[in-house]
């Protein structure tokens, strides 16, 4: 029943290079290629798009998201 | 009257592998298989569904929830 | 006039095994059997009910409440 | 002009055993007998009443108030 | 151009014994005699009055204001 | 392309004695002579005016602004 | 798949001297020349413009943005 406990950080390491979805406080969703993160869960994404419960509204070549604003991080289904 | 004091973290360790319900600030509920957590109560779930006081609206293969957004964690009744 | 100063944590230790009421930020009330707590005031309750200023709406076999959401903890009158 | 600087904590020590009024974030007022406090300004009151800008609505034999919710503490006039 | 740098704490030390105005998060203003403060900017005032953008509504013999609620502190003009 | 990296604190040191504008959470703007600051970005201003998206509404001989309420600090254009 | 992991701070170092866009809590956007930052992600920008989901409304010769208000930082596309 208990699988290999990939601690959240190990899991994030494994997501590097993949496209992920990041939900922010306030409802924004950012999808992009996950490039790096640090101990505060500050995240670096590339080729990213920010949507707010609707069609894509903003594109970013790259951006740093401050960890304190992150609700969850997920590789798209 | 005082039972074995399974400290919250021991309790969470015992929930690993089980399906749990996580209530987030703002009212979202996420149900999924509890895979791991760290000292900040960042949680990793798999095969998860996020609902907002209504029918299931989002599915996730896996996701990391940032601990600061968590209100409570519970194995479903 | 000054009684034995049971520091808040000693008081909480003495409440273990009793039914307590926990008020959360946002107005939720959770009543349940108080099983354990840690240094962050993360609380573990069992046989718990969550109400929101009205009739009982949710039951939980057990749940961990994140300390940062707690407003007060009280043994019912 | 500068009186004996009773640091806030010394002042709180001197209030132990007295009835105090505690204002919480969100507007609740709790009056009760001040029994103890800790380094996080978590407070223990007994024989307490919680009001919300109106007639008394809740009584508590005893309760622990989490320090982060406290706005001010005062011995009633 | 650069005057004697009275660091904020030195300035507060110099205000002890004077009447000050304290603005709180949420818009409350408290005027009173400034008696002491600690490293968290918890403040002790005496002979204080709390107003909310209107006529004085509450008097306090003395009160401790929790530092995290303070926006600014000022000796009245 | 990369100029001398005047770290934010060095920059603030250089602003001492000048009139600055401080934007606070909630929309208030305070303009005044910048006298000092500490490691928490608590700021001391003199001869200050507080406005709220409108004509000047409050004057202060001097005031301490708690750092946690500050959004940005800028020497007026 | 995993590129050189330019940690968020390395990435920010590489952005120094470039024009960046900074999104703040509450919806403000500030564009300006990125001059420096510190360990709290306090940012110094020059020749900056602040907009609030509309035409440019404020210009700044230079400003320090307090890190806790930052949501994301991005070099414009």
Give a description of the structure.
The mean pLDDT of chain A is about 85. The first copy, chain A, has about 80 residues and is mainly beta. Chain A has one domain: SH3 type barrels (Roll), CATH 2.30.30. In chain A, strands 4-3-2-1-5 form a five-stranded antiparallel beta sheet. Chains in contact: A-B, A-G, B-C, C-D, D-E, E-F, F-G. Chains C and D meet through helix 1 and strand 5 of C and strand 2 and strand 4 of D. Strand 5 of chain E pairs antiparallel with strand 4 of chain F.
**Would you state the CATH class of chain A?**
Mainly Beta
The main pleated sheet of chain A reads as: 5 strands, antiparallel
Proportion in β-strands of chain A: over 45%
State the end-to-end CA separation of chain A.
Answer: 23 Å
Q: Write down the CATH topology of chain A.
A: SH3 type barrels
Helix run count of chain A: 1
Mean pLDDT of chain A: 87
Secondary-structure element order of chain A, N to C: HEEEEE
Unreliable runs of chain A = none
How many distinct folded domains of chain A? 1
Order of strands across the widest beta sheet of chain A? 4-3-2-1-5
Protein name (chains A, B, C, D, E, F, G): Sm domain-containing protein
Organism (chains A, B, C, D, E, F, G): candidate division MSBL1 archaeon SCGC-AAA382A20
Domain Sm (chains A, B, C, D, E, F, G): 7-77
Pfam families (chains A, B, C, D, E, F, G): LSM (PF01423)
